[in-house]
Amino acid sequence: MGKSISEVSGQSNNPLFKNQVGMNKKPPINPKKKGFWKRASRQKALILMSFPFVIWLIVFKYIPIGGWLMAFQDYKPQFGMFDQEWVGLQHFKDLFQEPMFYQALENTLGMGILGLVFGTLSAITFALLLNEVRLITFKKLTQTISYLPHFVSWVIGANIVITMLAQEGVINNILVGLGLIDSPIGFMSNPDLFWGIVTVADVWKETGWNAIIYLAAMAGVDPQLYEAAKVDGASRLRQMWHITLPSIRPVIIVLLILSIGNLINIGFEKQMLLGNNVVADKALVIDLYALDYGIGMFRYSFGTAIGIFKSVISVILILICNQFAKKIGEGRVF
Amino acid sequence: MKKDFKKWTFFDIVLVLFMVFVLIITLYPFLNILAISLNNAVDTAKGGIHIWPREFTFANYKEIFGSNDRLLQAFFMSVLRTVVGTVTGVIASTMLAYTLSRRDFVFNKQVGFLLVITMFVSGGLIPEYMLIRHLGLINEFAVYILPMLISAFNVIIIRSFMDNIPPALEESAKIDGANDFTIFWRIIVPLCLPVIATIALFLAVGQWNSWFDTYLYARSNENLTTLQFELMKILDNANISGGDVTSQNAQVIADQTNPQSIKMAITIIATVPILLVYPFLQKYFVTGLTLGAVKS
C-alpha cells in the first residue's frame, strides 16, 4: 500500500502530468525533475544524435534476443514469427538425445579447459620471466613483438600453423633432423592431436597479449619488497616465487574466474579453420554444431535451442564462479 | 640498482636466451611465409625454404594483382569495407558516447541501459542470421557495415574519455549560444581525437580481419569476396585432403604458381596493413585496455 501511495504522490511530481495541468502550480522542489518536456525540447540535438542508434540497438541486438522464441516453435521462414507452430521443449528433448551433441560438448569443454590451463600458465610464465629481463630496450622490443600474432586474423593464424606443421614443414624438418622421428608426422590428419594443436596455436597467438595485464600488475609491485628480500639473501627465483607471484594473485584469480565463465564460449574460428574431414569428430564444437544443423540443414529452431543451451550453461558457470570467488575472497590472507 | 646491472648472472643469460627463443617462434612463421611467397612455386614443393627464397620470383603477387581479377577484387573489397566500416563505426560510437557522457540528457539512463545489456546478452548465431535474412542484407555490401556498427565496449571507452573533459569548456560554449551538436562537433570531437584514433584502429583491424560474415552472409556474391575469405577458401580446399599440403603442391598451374604459393602471398598482403598500423596500435591500445578494465 505504502508503495502505491508514494507512486501516486510521485505522479503529481511527474513533469509530464504537471505540464498537462498547467503553469499555475508551484515549481517542484527538485530542480533535476523540472520540466521534462522543456529539457527534452532543448535537447533536440542530443535526442537526434542517439535516436538512430537506439533503433539500431533494438533491431540488431534486441530482436535476435526475441528470436529465442524460435527454439520453442517449429520455425518455418515463410511464415511470420507468431504464425508458427509451438512445440514447447521438443527441440531441447531432441538435442539431449543426439550423440553428436555430447560429442560437441566434450570437444568444447576439452579444448576450453586445455586453452584455459595452458593459456594462463604460458601467459603468467612469460610475464614473470620478461619482468626479470634487465635490458630495458630488449624487454620492450620482446613485449612489442610478442603480441603481434594477436592482431592477425585466425585465417592467417591457421595458415601459419598448417604451414609449420605440414609434412615438409619446419616442425617435421626439425624433428627428423634431431632424429626424434623417422618419417614426417601428419599432424593435421591425426584426430588425437587436434585438441593439442588448437591449444598450441592459441598459446602461440595469444600468450603475449594475455601477458600484458600481468606485466601491468607486476609493474605496480612495491620495489621495497624486493630490496627487503635482497637484504635477507633471497635469490631472484625466490623473489619471483615469494613476491611477484603473490602480488599478482588477485589479478590471476579475477582473470581465471572470468575465463571459467567463458569456458563454453570458446568460439569456433580455430576449430573451423584448422579442422578438416579427417579430424572432424574432434573439431566439432557447439557453435559449429549449431551452424551445421541450424543453418546448413535449415533446422533453425534446433540451432536456436543449441544457442540457448550454451547461454544457460554460461550463466550457470558464471554464477558458480562468483560464489567460488566470494569464498576465496573471505579466505584470502595476504 | 646501477650496481646490480653490471652483475650479470647465469640466470640473466638464460632469460635473454629464452626471450630470443620466444622472438624466433613468433617471427619465424611470418618470415617463412614471406620467403615462400617470393619463391618459385615448383621449387617450393621440393621443401627446404626457410627465411630466404631460393628461386626468387614475384609470380605469386603478379597472380593476385595482375592476372586474377577475383583476387584483385577481393583486395579492393577488403580495403573498402575497412574504410567504410571504420568511418561509420567511429561516427556512430562517438555520437552515442557523447549523448551518454551528458548526464543531463533526458534519456541518458535509458539509452545507457539499452547499450550495456548488449554486453551481457546476445541472441546468438541463428537468430542473428535469421534477422539478416529478413532484413534482406544477404549478399549486400551493407552486411559488412550495419551489423557491427556499434560495440558497447568501444562506446564505453570513448565515454570514459569524455568524462575527463572539464565541463567548463562545454558551459562556456553554451553561454555563447552553441547548440549541442555544435558543442559536440567543435569542442568534444577535437578533444577526443586520441581515443577516436584508438577506436578507429580497433575497428579497422576488426574489419580487415573478418571473414566469417562473408562466409555466412555473402559467399554467393563474387563481388563481395574479401582477401581473408579467399584465403579461407584456399585453406578449406587444402583441408579437404586432410591438411596434407604436399598433394596440393603437385597440381602446379601455369605461370609457375599454385594455390599453395598464392595462399602465402595473400597471407603476406593480409598481414602488411596490420604491420603498418602496429606502431600506432600498440601505442594506444594499452590505454584502451586499462580504461576498459577500470570500467568493468
UniProtKB/TrEMBL annotation, chain A:
Q: Give the protein's recorded name.
A: ABC transporter permease subunit
> What Pfam families does the record point to?
BPD_transp_1 (PF00528)
List UniProt keywords, sorted A-Z: Membrane, Transmembrane, Transmembrane helix, Transport
**What membrane topology is given?**
Multi-pass membrane protein
Keyword Transcription regulation listed: no
Which SUPFAM superfamilies would you find in this protein's record?
MetI-like (SSF161098)
Stretches assigned to the ABC transmembrane type-1 domain: 105-321
From TrEMBL, chain B:
Per the UniProt record, which residue ranges are transmembrane? 9-31, 75-99, 111-129, 141-162, 183-205, 262-281
Topology relative to the lipid bilayer, per the entry, is: Multi-pass membrane protein
List UniProt keywords, sorted A-Z: Cell membrane, Membrane, Transmembrane, Transmembrane helix, Transport
Respond yes or no to whether keyword Transcription is given for this record.
Answer: no
Stored SUPFAM superfamilies: MetI-like (SSF161098)
The ABC transmembrane type-1 domain sits at: 75-281
Its chief place of residence is membrane
Q: Where in the cell is it found?
A: Cell membrane
The region annotated as signal peptide is none
Lineage, top-rank taxon, reads Bacteria
Q: What family is this?
A: Belongs to the binding-protein-dependent transport system permease family.
Q: Please state what the protein is called.
A: Carbohydrate ABC transporter permease
Q: Which organism is it from?
A: Aquibacillus rhizosphaerae
